[in-house]
């Protein structure tokens, strides 16, 4: 469905419901024009020496750090997260710009010995790529796609979530101020219709998407029509196993950080906890105490550690999960309702116990600050329940037993396993899920391969390559 060019969209602060900006939604025609521009810019950009491309990325990193306070404030206003965390997001984005300015992966050539021939494998950029980004980490999740694509000589059309376009727009402005040639990065604004028009455009060669599993499936179907390359970073329902010999204090802290960071709106949030029955009561008490004490409120209040949910539908969705769990027999050990906090989309950090396996909270992804804690009796049972999900993004285990730690590495079906540690991702490690959490990698050097295709070259006889 076409969107009129003049249609405006108001960006709202989820803490105060104030309007913080107005943006023009892209029409399907705008999308096509921007894809054509990105495609036209490709030939010159891929021919630009890596050192020049890298210099633009480094300069952008510098500007992001210079304007970190301003951009973090924008992020807090449009997304809701505490400003301290918004600043960390800006800094991590700057780090990503620096990281991929370091090595020219596109120049890598593998020489292969073939009898009587000269053979090699070279790497080529793909062309105009689409980057489709959600609202929970609008900057880092954009940078994870945009920067490796640019470093390897591709051009990019970015589509931020319509509710969080402002910090992303500012970041792209800084790229241009750093000397990016016209057309190398374009931005389109809108929802599913704009995203679909972008994916379906015949000049788009690759789609990188972060978002829900349901949308990921729709995107895969759209991309299949043009056999586009895909990276899908989708939902998760990460389990933590807390064993009989675990450091319960550390595990409870990791669970609280893992579930309540970003108001629980993180793909790698810790979403289900299985605790050995001998440690269950102590764990529940400690994690509930942390939940009850967490200061929530407007992200600009320096004492606040958890902001609101991002939107009205988002809060209603979380409330639906809690209602369903309680109806299935679960009990609230902490939170469970809206706090008395102005008119923003706040929800209390919540711990639910005795949640049965058939509750939606266990089967589906709940994108909010609700932590279900369940007891287990045998470690086999804990592993089976941890893996009993369609998702496979992250996982963690708390135990001193080296054999159990290794078993978790081997047997937990996920793209990440944390051992006695908080679930957080690292720039230098490949990130991505298995099963319905998607495929392809972001971060690490592995992401660069997602934006390069391999060409085998063979020269026969006296030919030289
Ligand atoms: P979403 O799937 O609703 O939207 C994500 C993006 O896709 C937005 O820009 C949206 O406008 C666009 N979109 C929606 N429908 C589309 C369509 N049919 N065609 C093209 N584009 C379309 O996700 P969300 O609610 O914004 O984000 C939350 C989800 O993202 C959660 O499921 C979370 O787990 C997931 N997530 C995954 C990762 C990861 O790396 N695996 C990271 C963060 C978030």
Largest sheet: 7 strands, mixed
Average pLDDT reading: 97
Give the helix tally: 15
**Gyration radius from CA atoms, angstroms:** 23 Å
**Coarse shape:** globular
The distinct bound ligands, ions and cofactors come out as: nicotinamide-adenine-dinucleotide
Chain oligomer state: single chain
Number of strands: 18
Explain how this protein is built.
- The structure is a single chain.
- 40% of the residues lie in helices and 20% in strands.
- The chain has 465 residues and is α/β, with parallel strands linked by helices.
- The strands form four sheets. It has a seven-stranded mixed sheet with strand order 12-13-14-11-10-15-16, with helices on both faces. It has a six-stranded mixed sheet with strand order 7-6-5-8-9-17, sandwiched between helices.
- Strand 15, helix 14 and strand 16 form a beta-alpha-beta unit.
- Helix 1 packs across helix 7, helix 2 packs across helix 6 and helix 3 runs antiparallel to helix 6.
- It starts with 7 loop residues before the first strand and ends in a 6-residue tail after the last strand.
- The N terminus is likely disordered.
- The protein binds nicotinamide-adenine-dinucleotide (NAD).
- Nicotinamide-adenine-dinucleotide binds next to helix 7 and helix 8.
Summarize the helices and strands and which ones pair or pack:
Layout: E1 8-12, E2 19-24, H1 28-47, H2 50-66, H3 68-79, H4 83-99, E3 110-114, E4 117-125, E5 128-132, H5 140-151, E6 155-159, H6 166-177, E7 185-187, H7 192-200, E8 204-210, H8 213-225, E9 229-233, E10 238-242, H9 248-260, E11 270-276, H10 277-293, H11 312-327, E12 331-334, E13 350-353, H12 360-363, E14 370-376, H13 379-387, E15 395-398, H14 402-411, E16 418-419, E17 438-439, H15 446-449, E18 452-459
Parallel strand pairs: 5-6, 5-8, 6-7, 8-9, 10-11, 10-15, 11-14, 13-14, 15-16
Antiparallel strand pairs: 1-2, 3-4, 4-18, 9-17, 12-13
């Amino acid at each position: 469905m076409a969107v009129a060019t003049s249609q405006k969209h108001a960006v709202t602060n989820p803490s105060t419901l104030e309007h913080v900006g107005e943006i023009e939604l892209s029409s399907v025609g705008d999308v096509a024009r921007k894809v054509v521009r990105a495609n036209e810019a490709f030939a010159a950009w891929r021919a630009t020496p890596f050192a020049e491309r890298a210099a633009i990325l480094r300069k952008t990193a510098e500007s992001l750090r210079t304007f970190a306070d301003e951009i973090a404030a924008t992020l807090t206003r449009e997304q809701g997260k505490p400003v301290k965390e918004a600043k960390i997001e800006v800094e991590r984005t700057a780090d990503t710009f620096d990281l991929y300015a370091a090595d020219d992966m596109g120049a890598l050539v593998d020489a292969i010995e073939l009898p009587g021939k000269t053979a090699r494998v070279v790497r080529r950029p793909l062309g105009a790529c689409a980057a489709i980004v959600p609202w929970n980490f609008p900057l880092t999740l954009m940078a994870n796609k945009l920067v490796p694509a640019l470093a390897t000589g591709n051009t990019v059309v970015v589509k931020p979530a319509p509710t969080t376009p402002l910090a992303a727009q500012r970041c792209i402005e800084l790229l241009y101020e750093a000397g990016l040639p016209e057309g190398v990065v374009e931005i389109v604004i809108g929802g599913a219709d704009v995203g679909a028009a972008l994916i379906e455009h015949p000049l788009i060669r690759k789609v990188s998407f972060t978002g829900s599993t349901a949308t990921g499936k729709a995107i895969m179907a759209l991309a299949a029509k043009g056999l586009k390359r895909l990276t899908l970073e989708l939902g998760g329902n990460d389990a933590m196993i807390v064993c009989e010999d675990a450091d319960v204090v550390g595990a409870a802290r990791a669970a609280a950080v893992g579930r309540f960071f970003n108001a629980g709106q993180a793909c790698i949030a810790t979403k289900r906890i299985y605790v050995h029955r001998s440690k269950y009561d102590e764990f529940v008490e400690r994690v509930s105490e942390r939940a009850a004490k967490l200061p929530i409120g407007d992200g600009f209040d320096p004492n606040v550690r958890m902001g609101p949910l991002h939107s009205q539908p988002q809060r209603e969705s979380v409330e639906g999960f809690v209602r369903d769990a309680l109806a299935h027999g679960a009990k609230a050990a902490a939170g469970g309702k809206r706090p008395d906090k102005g008119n923003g989309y706040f929800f209390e950090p919540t711990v639910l116990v005795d949640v049965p396996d058939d509750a939606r909270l266990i089967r589906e992804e709940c994108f909010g600050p609700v932590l279900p804690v369940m007891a287990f009796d045998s470690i086999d049972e804990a592993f089976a329940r941890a893996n009993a999900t369609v998702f496979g993004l992250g996982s963690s285990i708390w135990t001193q037993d080296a054999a159990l730690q290794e078993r978790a590495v081997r047997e937990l079906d996920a793209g990440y396993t944390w051992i006695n540690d908080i679930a957080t991702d690292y720039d230098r490690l490949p990130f991505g899920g298995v099963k319905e959490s998607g495929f392809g990698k972001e971060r690490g050097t592995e992401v660069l391969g997602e934006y390069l295709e391999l060409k085998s070259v063979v020269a026969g006889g006296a030919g030289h390559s």
